[in-house]
Automatic annotation (TrEMBL):
Its EC number is 4.2.1.136, 5.1.99.6. CDD domains: YXKO-related (cd01171). The lineage of its organism: Bacteria, Bacillati, Bacillota, Bacilli, Bacillales. HAMAP family: NADHX_dehydratase (MF_01965), NADHX_epimerase (MF_01966). The gene is nnrE. Pfam families: Carb_kinase, YjeF_N. Coiled coil: none annotated. Homotetramer. It comes from Thalassobacillus cyri. One of its GO terms (biological process) is nicotinamide nucleotide metabolic process. Residues 224-503 form the YjeF C-terminal domain. The keyword NADP applies. Belongs to the NnrE/AIBP family. Bifunctional enzyme that catalyzes the epimerization of the S- and R-forms of NAD(P)HX and the dehydration of the S-form of NAD(P)HX at the expense of ADP, which is converted to AMP. This allows the repair of both epimers of NAD(P)HX, a damaged form of NAD(P)H that is a result of enzymatic or heat-dependent hydration. Keywords: ATP-binding, Isomerase, Lyase, Metal-binding, Multifunctional enzyme, NAD, NADP, Nucleotide-binding, Potassium. This is Bifunctional NAD(P)H-hydrate repair enzyme.
Length: 505
């Protein structure tokens, strides 16, 4: 499923009408009917529904929704919030159909009158503004949105909650806080941004008859369950441990032995054939006690942290994961540089490895094999030399620019993880929940990604599937044995079995 910007959505609409001969009024009828169908699943016929209607096509959808629900016997009142002359085109046509059907329309003359009605409503359907919103809300929408937000009614937004921008880059806005948003045709970028996503509540996408071939292929899409099931690696009955990849994991320190142990264990649980750990000797007894299946290579250390160069032939491995629990000692930096310059295999860099890499980002361009960076927003902001809010205002654009200019795969972690390939293609993986917001969860992800990179033809698919497994494991576990509060990174590793049994079929 593609994720669209407002422009991509408008272009799709225009091309469908101009080139495919679709009719704008028919699309609006389809949109309104599709939304009404979703509303019916959530609302009882004895509940009082208010539909709030604005000037543009979002308001036009509102007329269709109100008519469709009234046709079916629901208790609905439609409120037009703008003067009559503002309603034009397809929206006006549907207003006339609504009135022609004999239904009543209330006009906003005095906001307190509407507010008294809103106090009585069980359900409010927000068809005020859609993706055409520009700038901060003007009167009366600012007052109405503020009032609706503090009512007890169940709030359903049509396409996008009023006031919320469709695209990234806008951080100052007042938005309707929806409980549920019925998105038309394709999710907008703001569904996946940290500052806008919470306004949507639960969301679903409805199909309205726009021909997919008339959509100019957007660069962003959503990773979905069916894609994961189709592309997760399958075990060959005639395989041996070498077939599934020998992974080298470099990291850990005397005071942080857990991270690398979690990564190594997650890699083996995710199908890696062999996991070899390069950590300081002082950390190894602790690491091996958590993962006896892993082997070790000798590594020099200073003050319990990796130091100097590693005496390892990197070509003996199929991929490398670097940085977890490594610490930020200057002495460790040389290993990061050595791996970047010498390892002719895919390399994943996480955590403290990213901190070291920041000092010599120019090496990235010289690498012949894939490099994967897996920063959380704080680490990404550090790599870019900007603040976290600056990054989160435009994570798609910033991530794309970085991945393209440095020739790397970028896994920008968050509630919606954005995976960018060196060619700028972006996939959002949005599974998981707040149970993952805990120390060690990123280390587990690095191990899973390492294992899948070694078992997949496509790096992008491996990264999407790794994030999917990580998120879905949290969902499965918190749906049964654990809560989002008590879930540990170690539980995630053990829970991977359940995810593989569910999805790798
Ligand atoms: N295929 C499709 O794509 C389909 C799309 N469909 C639907 O169309 C929607 C997009 O419709 P759209 O373009 O008419 O924009 P939309 O958001 O309804 O309103 C624009 C109006 O808002 C106003 N306005 C703007 N900013 C404002 C502010 N800050 N504060 C206050 N007012 C503000 C501005 O008024 P003005 O500035 O002139 O006063 C303008 O008149 C889309 O979300 C979906 O629901 C479906 O019908 C099916 C097919
Ligand atoms: K809306």
């Amino acid at each position: 499923m593609y994720i669209v910007t407002a422009k991509e959505m408008y272009d799709w609409d225009r091309k469908s009408i101009e080139e495919a001969g679709m009719d704008g009024k028919l699309l609006m009828e389809n949109a309104g009917r599709a939304v009404a169908g979703q509303v019916e699943k959530q609302v009882r016929s004895d509940q009082y529904i208010i539909v709030l209607i604005g000037a543009g096509n979002n308001g036009g959808d509102g007329f269709v929704i109100a008519r469709t629900l009234l046709n079916k016997g629901y208790a609905v009142k439609a409120w037009q919030l703008v003067p009559d002359e503002k309603i034009k085109g397809d929206a006006l046509a549907h207003k006339q159909l609504y009135l022609g059907a004999g239904y009543e329309l209330d006009h906003l003359t005095e906001v307190n009158q509407l507010f008294r009605e809103l106090d009585q409503a069980d359900v409010v359907i927000d068809a005020m503004l859609g993706i055409g919103v520009e700038g901060k809300l003007k009167s009366p929408f600012d007052q109405v949105v503020a009032y609706v937000n503090q009512t007890q009614a169940y709030k359903i937004a049509v396409d996008i909650p009023t006031g919320v921008p469709a695209d990234e880059g806008v951080t100052e806005f007042d938005g309707l806080q929806a409980d549920y948003t019925c998105i038309i045709a394709a999710p907008k970028m703001s569904v996946f941004l940290q500052h806008t996503a919470p306004f949507y509540g639960e969301w679903e996408v409805v199909e309205i008859g726009l021909p997919p071939l008339k959509l100019n292929k957007p660069s962003q899409s959503l990773w979905e369950r069916y894609k994961a099931i189709a592309s997760l690696p399958k075990r060959n009955p005639f395989s041996h441990k070498g077939t599934h990849g020998k992974g080298l994991l470099i990291g850990g320190s005397y005071l942080m032995p857990g991270s690398i142990a979690l990564s190594a264990r997650a890699a083996l649980r995710s199908g890696a054939g062999l996991a070899t750990v390069a950590s300081p000797g002082s950390a190894w007894p602790s690491v091996s006690s958590h993962i006896p299946e892993a082997t070790a290579v000798d590594a020099k250390e200073v003050n319990g942290m990796l130091a100097g160069r590693l005496d390892v032939d990197f070509s003996n491995f199929d991929a490398i994961a670097l940085g977890m629990g490594m610490g930020r000692s200057n002495a460790s930096q040389e290993i990061v540089r050595q791996v970047m310059e010498e390892a002719d295999v895919p390399v994943l860099i996480d955590a403290d490895g990213l901190h070291h890499l920041k000092e010599f980002l120019e090496v990235l361009k010289n690498r012949n094999r894939p490099t994967i960076l897996t920063p959380h927003p704080g680490e990404m902001a550090g790599l870019l030399g900007i603040t976290v809010p600056e990054l989160l205002a435009r994570p798609f654009e910033r991530g794309r620019r970085f991945a393209c200019s440095h020739g790397v795969y970028l896994v920008l972690k968050g509630p919606a993880t954005i995976i960018t390939a060196p060619d700028g293609t972006q996939v959002v993986e949005s599974s998981g929940n707040a149970g993952l917001a805990k120390g060690g969860s990123g280390d587990v992800l690095s191990g899973i990604l390492l294992a899948l990179v070694m078992q997949s033809e496509s790096i992008s698919e491996a990264l999407c599937n790794g994030c999917f497994l990580h998120g879905k494991t949290a969902e499965l576990l918190t749906g049964e044995r654990y809560s989002q509060s008590d879930l540990l990174a170690t539980d995630l590793i053990e829970g991977l079995s359940q995810s593989f049994r569910t999805f790798s079929i």
